[in-house]
Amino acid sequence: MTQGLYPTFRVLLVDDEPAWLRSLSMTLEGPGAITNLLPCSDSREVMGILAREEVGLVLLDLTMPHLSGEELLGRIVEEHPEVAVIIVSGLNQIETAVRCMRAGAFDYFVKTVEEDRLLDGVRRAIRMLELQRENREMRRRFLYDRLEHPEAFAGIVTHNKAMRTIFQYVESVARSSQPLLITGESGVGKELVARAVHALSRRRGAMVSVNVAGLDDSVFADTLFGHTRGAFTGADTARGGMIEQAGEGTLFLDEIGDLSLSSQVKLLRLLQEGEYFPLGSDKPKQMRARVVVATHQDLAAKQAGRQFRKDLYYRLRTHHVHLPPLRERKDDLALLLEHFLQEAADELDKKKPTIPKELPVLLATYHFPGNVRELKAMVYDAMSVHTSKILSMQPFLSAMERHGELPSGASSAAAAQGNVFAEAEQLPTLAEANEQLVAEAMERAAGNQTIAARLLGISQPALSKRLKHARNSE
Ligand SMILES: Nc1ncnc2c1ncn2[C@@H]1O[C@H](COP(=O)(O)OP(=O)(O)OP(=O)(O)O)[C@@H](O)[C@H]1O
């Protein structure tokens, strides 16, 4: 099912005056872009509608024939506590407002209130209801450890537990209209997750991606908002921006951590007001797309250093997904290796070679600063020069050495664990410790000296010398 309606639940408008219902609908649909409306002019029908339809919010008049608004409010609160009620009444009486709020109304407006304030109140209620629903949904998914739409994640190869938990969270928030922030190091799969979010959102429009790094403020505004004819020198024709292209879909802003401070103000206003002005135009346009942003930067640190606006930061991280780097999910290495090898073999029209059993061990010693993208590039490189039946480890070793990285294996693991001798009653001698360490590294490297040397943080010839020395002294 596709849907272009917002919010996902129905908003029931109850008033005995059809003219008021029409004008309220126009306000909500027009400037408010709140489109999932259900008008009702007979108070007697309200409880039946609530039993039948998936209503989340009711905008309720107070003075009506048959059943009064206050009476209805009491029944709704009792029988449908998950439904929020906003009173929109002709009565400007403090006592009535207080009574309604005490009885459980979410908010109270008089009909003469300015349109903007009413819309703000309705948006606030929708946001609260969406968050409540997401919470319920998340609890349910985590409790049953279930993915409802695993097909949406088919492009993300993993069997890591942390990634699965992230997928469950993504399923719970994918249909929200609130922004989603995706963080994680470069090449970790942020764009893939954004695509999964879009697929799960069931939104009608497209997913439009914009890399905002390096865009100066006017290019940013032009890219997103578009312009009218003659808006600036060279604007010979009017052009819609990316927001328009996304329609009711997803606007994906990549590298958001690099957005200039002046563009941050524009983005904040867009998110707060849901509308924008194409350059050269004084007529606002509604944004109907959902905003998803990604960055490899630490936005919290940037915010603390005043390079990123605090208000925008909090707005963007209403929902937040952080993807762990590849070195923290080494259980995915073998699976990804297989996957990219098959993919590269198909693309290069070669037979998939056998993977030497030492290769995953070697890869596990590496830090992968470029994450999955780097692994993919390594595999494609290796496949492009590969000729024999067994995949050569040399291109992988060369790629790691090009990064000039010293082994991340034994030394960093020990450092992470603190003092490895802390538990030992008696210290081994230096010679014993040396011998045990070398034996353990050779064991972990499945007998491969190059890998064992990387694990120990020494060169392969140095390890070979130690092994020879150990053998001679036996
Ligand atoms: N789990 C995965 N399974 C399969 N391919 C993956 C996976 N993670 C990443 N990739 C591949 O790695 C490359 C980088 O992924 P992606 O562009 O999503 O990363 P990113 O985090 O958005 O990177 P950047 O911060 O540089 O924009 C892509 O080719 C993507 O297909």
From TrEMBL:
Keyword list, A-Z: ATP-binding, Nucleotide-binding, Phosphoprotein, Transcription, Transcription regulation
Give all residue intervals belonging to the Response regulatory domain.
10-126
Source taxon at top rank: Bacteria
Locate the 4-aspartylphosphate modifications and list their residues: D61
**What InterPro entries does this protein map onto?**
AAA+_ATPase, AAA_lid_NorR, CheY-like_superfamily, Homeodomain-like_sf, HTH_Fis, P-loop_NTPase, Sig_transdc_resp-reg_receiver, Sigma_54_int
Sigma-54 factor interaction domain spans which residues? Answer: 156-384
The protein's name is: Sigma-54-dependent Fis family transcriptional regulator
> What organism is the protein native to?
Desulfuromonas versatilis
